[in-house]
Amino acid sequence: MKIAVCIKQVVTREWQLRVNDQKTWIRDQDASFELNEPDAYALEEALRLKEKHTGEVVVCCAGPARATQVIREALARGADRAIHVESDALATADANAVAEALAAAIKEESVDLVLTGLQSDDQGFGQVGVVLAEKLGIPHATIIMEVQKTDTGLHVKRELEGGWFQWVGLPMPALLTIQSGINQLRYATLKGIMGAKKKEIKKVVPAVAPPAQRVASIYFPEKGKKTQMLSGSPAEAAKELVKRLREEARAL
Amino acid sequence: MILVVAEHRDGKLNRATLETIAAAQHAGGPVKIAVLGAGVDAVAAEVARADAAEVITVDDAALKDYTADGFVMALEQLIAAEKPERVFLPHTYQARDFAPALAARINRPLVTDCVAVKDGAVKDGGYVRPMFQGKLQADIAIDGPHMATFQIGAYRADAMKAGTAPIRKAAIAIDASKIRQKPEAPFKEAKQAVDLSQAERIVSVGRGIKAQEHLQLAQQLAQAMGAEIAASRPICDAGWLPMDRQIGSSGQTVAPKLYVALGISGAIQHLVGMKGARTIVAINKDPEAPIFEIADYGIAGDLFEVVPAMIAELNK
Predict the structure, then answer these.
(1) Is A19 touching B (CB cutoff 8 A)?
(2) What is the CATH number of the domain that holds A147?
(3) Is B252 close to A223, i.e. CB distance below 8 A?
(4) How many domains does chain A divide into?
(5) Which domain holds residue A246?
(6) pLDDT band for position B107 (cuts 50, 70, 90)
(7) Which of these, A127, B82, B99, B111, has the minimum number of CB atoms within 10 Å of its CB?
(8) Using a CB-CB distance cutoff of 8 angstroms, which residues of chain B are in contact with residue A230?
(9) Does any CB of chain B come closer than 8 Å to the CB of residue A251?
(10) Which of residues 24-63 of B touch A (CB under 8 A)?
C-alpha cells in the first residue's frame, strides 16, 4: 500500500503567543515550532499500515523552508521519503490554497491512501484533508478511529458525536482524516534520526492561490468578567480557594 | 439570501440547527432552510416553525443514511438552483465531513467554527472564529458568495425568531451509484464503566499534568474533595487514563456541582463537555488560558505547588 501522509509545522503549544503590530498574524519570527499533533497520529497510522501490509509512506508537507524540521522528524520516525511543497505564502494560506498545493504534488504519486490529521493546532480550519480528497477526485471519510484494509478497499470506523461510532466502507484510493488517540505514538530512535539524513526530500515549488478568506484582525478574546482570580503564594491562593469553595460556592 | 442546512438523525433534529438559524437571522436578509434525507416531513415541519422565507426538502432514498458524497451531490444542485449568497451549517462532525468538499466542489470559500457573524459587510471581517486552539480570536474577511459553519453554542437556540415557513420539495435527483461511501448503522461502544454525569465533583487533568506519574497528585486531590477523576482528550489519547474518563465533545458531558480543571487550557472541544458545571475552578500556569474565561475561581500558577497546598488545606 502506497500511503501519502500530510503533515504541518505549527508553533509549539508552550510558546507564549504574541500578535504582530498589524494584528494580522502572530509574531512567529522568534517562535519555536513542532509537528502538528493530530498529524502525528496520521503518520503513526500510516507507519502501522505499512508494517502490516507492506508498501511505502511518503510524507507531504506544505509550508515555508523552516518546515524541514518536521519533515526530518517524520522521516526519523519511519517515513520512507518526503515531498516538501515549499512556499512562504503557505505559512498563513487558507485551506483551499494549502489543499491545492498538496494536490498537485500528490497527484503525481498515484497513492492508494492519503492520511491527514483532523485539524491543525494553529488555524484549525479542519478542512484541508476533505478539500484535498475533492481535488484528487477520491472518496473520503473523517474523524477515523480504526482502519481495516479489505479485499475491495477500506473499512473504517468513524467517530460520531456523543460516544457514537459508525463503520464505513469505501474503495481505494481514498483519503482519511485521522482522529487523535487512534494509536499510541512512537518516537524517533537514534537510528531513525541518523537514517533520516539519507532519505530523499523532494522540493516542489507550488503556485499558491491568493487566500479567499483573510485575517482582518487577530486578538486575544475578551475575558469573562465573573472569574475571581486568587493571587498570593501557592499556599495562600490554595487556602483562599478552599475557603471560597466551602463558604461562598458551597461546593465542598 | 442565506441557506441554512439542517442536521438530523433518525428523524430527530439536532438542536445546533436552531442555533445556526438564529445566526442566519442575526446576519440579516431572507433565510431558507434545507432539510436533506429520506422521509423528512416531520423534521421539515419542526424547522418550519422558524421565521424563514422557506423550508426546502430534498427527499430521496439515496439520502436515507448520511454520506458525504450524497450530501455534496444534493447540495451542489440545490445551491445551483437557489443561488444563496451564503450557506450556513452547524459545526458538527457531520458538517465537518462534507462541507469542505462541497465548498471545493462549488468553488466557494468556507469559514469554519465561527463564534459570531457581524451584520452588514463581511469584506472587512464579518466572521469571528477561534485560532490557535481558542487562545486567539480572528475577524475573517471574505468576498463574494461563501459558506460558514457555526460553533455549537455560538448562538442560542431560544434566540431563534419563530414564524411559519412554507415547505417545498425540491426537484433534485440523486444518483445513488455515485455514492462511494457505504455507511453502516451507528453504534455505541460497550457500556461505559464510569458514568461521570452522575458525579457531584470532578477533578479533571489536562496536558499541564506533564507525566503519567503526576496523576497521583490529582487523584489525591480528588480523594480529599470526594471527587471523581477525569481528563481532557490528550490525556486519554496518551493512554494515561482510560477513554471513558474523557470530558468533552468526543467524551462525556457533565454538569457537576464542582469542576476543578488542572492544567487544562480550555479548547472548545473540552469546554462543551463541562461548561454546565455549577462552580468551575481553573488552575493553570498560563494566565491567558481560555479556561479562565469560563471559570468562577482561577489561580494562575504552578499546579504542582498549588495542588499539594490544597490537599493540605482540605485535610486539615
Answers:
(1) yes
(2) 3.40.50.620
(3) no
(4) 2
(5) 226-252
(6) very high
(7) B82
(8) 297-299
(9) yes
(10) none
